[in-house]
């Protein structure tokens, strides 16, 4: 990683991307739409527009910039290289040069033309149109380190030989655990996109108890997050019932707080979780795991209470038997004639 690129990571960036990133405004500037999914033909110009709204009473000077992006790890967060030369999908965009002056309370429509080259590869191409508060320095991109940027993401699909392939790389319990003492249970799905277009997997996670009865049915990827081509993204699905309170203080305080948490998020025994998902028009896959839930605090307190009840019952029976024996030994009263 170059020094300039490391520096440019300090840029305050705000992007929204259909489940990828969040933060809809920056410096009271609103951008509509935050995400574009658009089909484009090689060699054919496609027109769209971005709406900007200055929510402040101050005048804003904005400088547009186009930067391609890739997935960063398995979190769905983006990687932007502001030091990269203007090439690839970033060169397909034609938009007004800065500064774009936006008066206080003013709304402005920014026209954008996207023209893929005639030899553009079919599949997904990804770029972000940023509006920054500082002019780009083409000779020293790292100088943008203190700028604030608001971006709209473009997920472009170039027509042609598009490949939709993917599968569940891994399905399991967070931390690769097999046993919990209470809910929530965080189930993770690592979805691998091996095609050349982004995919938004969707489906359900079904949880059944030891008897095979359905205990919960959860919506997988409710936020419709996408997985970019040639990448793996991790999705979390949470099974929960009640509010979990933070345990603090001494041992006994923590014990009874966790006891209440186990009670509010009670589950007991073996459970089987299965996932069935689809992605795009062709991808289908499923997986399942087994895990156990042992609320040991509830079980321990219940056993102690049961033991106490049995002990008291035994003591009562012994006292009652003694009373019966003593009563039987008393001399019988003479019968009156």
CATH top level label of the largest domain: Mainly Beta
Would you count the extended β strands for me? Answer: 20
Biggest sheet layout: 7 strands, mixed
State the CATH topology of the largest domain.
Answer: Immunoglobulin-like
Head-to-tail CA distance between termini: 116 Å
> What is the helix fraction of residues, given as a range?
10-25%
Counted up, domains total: 2
Order of helices and strands: HEEEEEEEEEEEEEEEEEEHEEH
Strand content: 35-45%
Number of helices: 3
CATH superfamily of the largest domain: Immunoglobulins
Q: Looking at the structure, what is the overall shape?
A: elongated
Q: Taking all residues together, what is the mean pLDDT?
A: 87
Structural class: alpha+beta
CATH architecture of the largest domain: Sandwich
Radius of gyration: 32 Å
- pLDDT < 50 runs, ≥5 residues: 1-13, 15-26, 142-146
Describe this structure in words.
- With 337 residues, this protein is of the alpha+beta class.
- It has two domains: 156 residues, Immunoglobulin-like; 129 residues, Immunoglobulin-like (Sandwich).
- It is 16% helix and 42% strand.
- The protein is built from three helices and 20 strands.
- The strands form four sheets. Strands 1, 4, 6, 7, 9, 11 and 12 form a seven-stranded mixed sheet that branches.
- It starts with a helix and ends in an 8-residue tail after the last helix.
What labels describe this entry?
disordered N terminus; alpha+beta; 2 domains; Immunoglobulin-like
């Amino acid at each position: 990683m170059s020094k300039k690129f490391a520096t440019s990571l300090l840029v305050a960036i705000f992007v929204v991307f259909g489940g990828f990133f969040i933060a809809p405004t920056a410096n009271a500037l609103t951008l509509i739409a935050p995400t574009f999914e658009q089909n484009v033909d090689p060699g054919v110009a496609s027109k769209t527009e971005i709406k900007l709204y200055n929510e402040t009473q101050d005048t804003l000077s904005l400088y547009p910039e186009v930067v391609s992006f890739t997935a960063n790890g398995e979190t769905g967060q983006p990687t932007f290289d502001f030091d990269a030369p203007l090439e690839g999908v970033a060169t397909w965009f034609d938009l007004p040069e800065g500064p774009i002056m936006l008066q206080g309370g003013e709304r402005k429509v920014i026209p954008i033309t996207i023209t893929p080259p005639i030899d553009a590869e079919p599949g997904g191409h990804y770029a972000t149109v940023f509006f920054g508060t500082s002019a780009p320095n083409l000779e020293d991109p790292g100088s943008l380190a203190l700028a604030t940027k608001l971006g709209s993401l473009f997920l472009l699909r170039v027509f042609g030989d598009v490949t939709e392939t993917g599968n569940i790389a891994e399905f399991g319990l967070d931390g690769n655990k097999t046993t919990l003492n209470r809910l929530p249970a965080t189930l993770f799905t690592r979805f691998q996109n091996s095609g050349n277009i982004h995919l938004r997997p969707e489906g359900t996670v079904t949880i059944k108890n030891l008897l095979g009865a359905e205990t919960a049915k959860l919506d997988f990827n409710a936020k419709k997050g996408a997985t970019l081509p040639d990448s793996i993204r991790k999705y979390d699905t949470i099974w929960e019932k009640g509010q979990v309170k933070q345990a603090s203080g001494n041992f006994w305080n923590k014990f009874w707080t966790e006891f209440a948490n186990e009670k509010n998020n009670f589950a007991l025994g073996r459970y089987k979780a299965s996932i069935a998902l689809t992605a795009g028009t062709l991808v289908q896959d499923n997986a399942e795991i087994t895990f156990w839930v042992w609320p040991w605090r509830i079980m321990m307190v219940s056993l102690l209470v049961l033991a106490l009840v049995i002990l008291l019952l035994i003591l009562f029976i012994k006292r009652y038997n003694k009373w019966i024996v003593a009563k039987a030994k008393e001399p019988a009263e003479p019968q009156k004639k």
